[in-house]
Amino acid sequence: MEIVLAEVKDAPIIHEVMLQAFKEYEHAIPPSSALNETVASIEQALKCGERAFIGYIKEQAVAMVRLFTVNNTGIYFFRLSVIPEKQGLGLAKALIVGLEKYGRSQRKSISECKVRMSVPRNIELYHSLGYVITKEEVVKNRNGIAIPVVTMVKVLSEEGDIT
């Protein structure tokens, strides 16, 4: 998989990959607010400093992840997405490794994400990459609905290993 840093013009690609990946959560309680995002909202976020990586296989967008800088010390990633027919092939892990490399190149020392407690396979994925749960809380999504989540953090060293 080739991983590229997205540009504002790539917002429709980001949106499409995200919708395909998050469709499985449309009947979750509550449904993912990712399904309510628009190309315009993603364009605006990218214009305001958000970054995204898109993974391509043979010129087809198959995965993406969005991120931004937190307190000048870390990166926070979200909306990690792999299209359904490519899930289970290690693409999510490859994207995370890529965003961690990007974080280190930007002199960031922490990589962080929030994960719904109701999706243990995602918690397991991040654990397998060295992320640890640092906090459990209930947050409100963009629609004001309370969701139990865990915050998962990895300390980034120069080599990319946990320090």
Which characteristics define this entry?
7-stranded mixed sheet, globular, alpha+beta, 35% strand, 163 residues
* Order of strands, widest sheet: 1-2-3-4-5-7-6
Helix content: 25-40%
Number of strands: 7
Distance between the termini: 28 Å
Task: Provide the structure class.
Answer: alpha+beta
Mean pLDDT comes to 92
Order of helix and strand elements from N to C terminus? EHHEEEHEHEE
Unreliable stretches, pLDDT < 50, 5 or more residues? none
Biggest sheet record: 7 strands, mixed
Summarize it:
It is built from four helices and seven strands. It is an alpha+beta fold. It has a seven-stranded mixed sheet.
Structural features, described:
The chain is an alpha+beta fold and 163 residues long. Helix content is 28%, strand content 35%. It contains four helices and seven strands, in the order E-H-H-E-E-E-H-E-H-E-E. It has a seven-stranded mixed beta sheet with strand order 1-2-3-4-5-7-6. Helix 1 crosses helix 2 (39-47). It is globular, with a radius of gyration of 15 Å. It starts with a strand and ends in an 8-residue tail after the last strand.
Task: Describe the SSE topology.
Blueprint: E1 2-5, H1 11-22, H2 39-47, E2 51-57, E3 60-70, E4 74-82, H3 91-105, E5 110-116, H4 120-128, E6 132-140, E7 146-155
Parallel strand pairs: 4-5
Antiparallel strand pairs: 1-2, 2-3, 3-4, 5-7, 6-7
Helix pairs in contact: 1-2
